[in-house]
Specification:
With about 220 residues, this protein is α/β, with parallel strands linked by helices. It is about 50% helix and about 15% strand. Strands 1-8-7-2-5-6 form a 6-stranded parallel sheet, with helices on both faces. A two-stranded antiparallel sheet has the order 3-4. The chain is globular and about 75 Å long. About 5% of the residues have low confidence.
Length: about 220
């Protein structure tokens, strides 16, 4: 290959690499900007909201694993402190991954009354959790409890669902994992794109109507 052709190929490859980086950095910077002022680490300073939302995460042996338990402990502290009136737990609930059952059981074992627990077994992703919280469970304001590295994306998705949301960024070591941070960056890009291109809570109108019909029988 002639030198000019080589240089041209290198310029093209460089331009593609720059564009790829911008496609990730740009959306992540925007989401972080949108979350500014809404992320808290000190539980005592968190303003009151109606509901704490706990997105699902890994369970082990039918019990919340370390990161999910940390989310639940944050929600429990908010509940006991009177900063929320109820706790919504949302995630998968399969034989292999009984997230919602594990969260519900954990909260009941720690003294949260049944009437103050909202369980949603169809929140397979954070976006689904927030859309269902707003579209199915009428959540209008909330405190999201999740790990610090997930905080910006989670509160962004809650806001996009129409929820007046803030987030407790539970301290973790997840930010030290390059693989995890890379995955979170990709999820943030996807969150921004889907929020602009796909329907939000309004897409759940039929399910909401069905639930109301069943409730009035």
């Amino acid at each position: 290959m002639a030198a000019p052709s080589r240089r041209r190929a290198l310029r093209i490859a460089g331009a593609i690499a720059v564009a790829a980086v911008a496609a990730v950095v740009g959306p992540n910077a925007w989401v972080a900007h949108e979350a500014r002022g809404r992320v808290f680490t000190d539980l005592a300073s968190v303003p009151a909201r109606s509901v704490a939302i706990v997105p699902g995460a890994r369970v082990y042996g039918g019990k919340p694993f370390v990161h999910l338990e940390a989310r639940l402990r944050a929600a429990l502290s908010l509940y006991r402190g009177g900063q929320v009136k109820a706790i919504l737990v949302s995630g998968n609930d399969t034989t292999a991954s009984p997230e919602v059952t594990a969260m519900h059981t954990w909260l009941r074992a720690h003294g949260v009354p049944e009437r103050d627990i909202i369980a949603d077994a169809r929140g397979s992703r954070t976006r689904d959790t927030m859309n269902r919280a707003a579209g199915i469970h009428d959540v209008r304001d909330a405190i999201v409890c999740t790990q610090d590295v997930n905080a910006a994306r989670s509160v962004y998705l809650a806001e996009q669902a129409g929820i007046d949301a803030i987030v407790v960024g539970v301290p973790s070591h997840l930010g030290e994992s390059t693989r995890y941070v890379g995955g979170e960056a990709f999820k943030t890009v996807l969150a921004l794109l889907e929020s602009q291109l796909r329907a939000g809570p309004s897409a759940l109108a039929n399910e909401r109507a069905d639930r109301r019909a069943i409730a009035t029988r």
